[in-house]
Amino acid sequence: MLIKNSNKNILIVGGAGYIGSHMSAFLSRIGYTPIVLDDLSTGHRDAVLDAEFIEGSIADSALLDHIFSTRSIAAVMHFASFIQVGESVRLPEKYYQNNVANTLNLLIAMLKHKINKFIFSSTAAVYGEPHYTPIDENHPIKPINPYGCSKNMIEQVLADLMHAYSFQYAVLRYFNAAGADLSGKLCERHDPETHLIPLILQVANGQREDITIYGQDYPTPDGTCVRDYIHVTDLCDAHFKALSMLEAGEKCCIYNLGTGQGYSVKQVIDAAREITGCDISVKQGARREGDPAILVADATRAMRDLKWTPQYSDLKTIIQHAWKTYS
């Protein structure tokens, strides 16, 4: 049965994961009709709120043909990548299969069914070791791990598709996604969890004993790594604004998504102690290979072109919203 209001139907692949589920809820709230496709390898069925859910993989060409033949899809948003840098080094074939080959399979299906608008969840990892900070979109692209390479490969594919076909796309390079939906119904649930803020809050909530700081001798004010954290709701808003640009006829756009403000690991821990009222135990660990001292975005282009202003991305607000889902 064909779904009505075709200009509002958005297929969200990986929509049961952290950012994808928030995006689905965001679109539903503003009048779009999200349709979630997820194989649940890392996502959670109960994270899909107020949206049609289809269990399956973007590797399944027959399923994609069925979805695109029976539903009028205006655009596709892609959140179906594997994202663990360390795992990508140990298992590069896993990342190239899913992040590259499977995504290419999705794009081929889109071309076949004449669906030409695509929003791609990319990453600051495409830049590799920063030559300067804050990092703008003109920074050299030199990924240093298979995860970053896999994302860059799809960026290259998208550029080629735009030139060969009337294909429109937006590439959004995240820095550190964090926080939780303002309703408290959604949260960050990676398994295993690798992101700093949820790991810290798990200590505060008694789910783990301590948080490890990997290296305290970096050339930063307190010796710990500095990162740019962006609230997941602000990320969703940027995706919506990028979609609006494509709907208005823009052929392609590439944007960094961050705030331009960096916080050190110690600053994040101190802020979490203040907000939770809990004593958060810390262990010292050695530096991790490939961890840059500072990763901060220059998101001037996104703020200018998309008329986008992060509203919830100050550190305390991010932690407060995330803590609400734990407590």
The structural class is: alpha/beta
Number of strands: 13
* Name of the top-level CATH class of the largest domain: Alpha Beta
> So what's the oligomer here?
single chain
Q: N- to C-terminal separation?
A: 42 Å
Strand order of the largest sheet: 3-2-1-4-5-6-10
The H/E string reads EHEEHEHHEHEEHEEHEEHEEHH
User: How many domains?
Assistant: 2
By CATH, the topology of the largest domain is Rossmann fold
**What is the count of DSSP helices, taking H or I runs of 4+ residues?**
10
What kind of sheet is the major sheet? 7 strands, parallel
Helical amount: 25-40%
Shape: globular
Radius of gyration: 19 Å
Low-confidence stretches: 1-6
Element layout with pairings:
Elements: E1 9-13, H1 18-29, E2 33-38, E3 52-55, H2 61-70, E4 75-78, H3 85-90, H4 92-112, E5 117-123, H5 146-164, E6 168-174, E7 176-178, H6 196-204, E8 211-214, E9 226-231, H7 232-247, E10 252-257, E11 262-264, H8 265-276, E12 282-285, E13 294-295, H9 300-305, H10 315-326
Parallel strand pairs: 1-2, 1-4, 2-3, 4-5, 5-6, 6-10, 7-9, 8-12, 9-13
Antiparallel strand pairs: 9-11
Helix pairs in contact: 1-7, 2-4, 4-5, 6-8, 6-10, 8-10
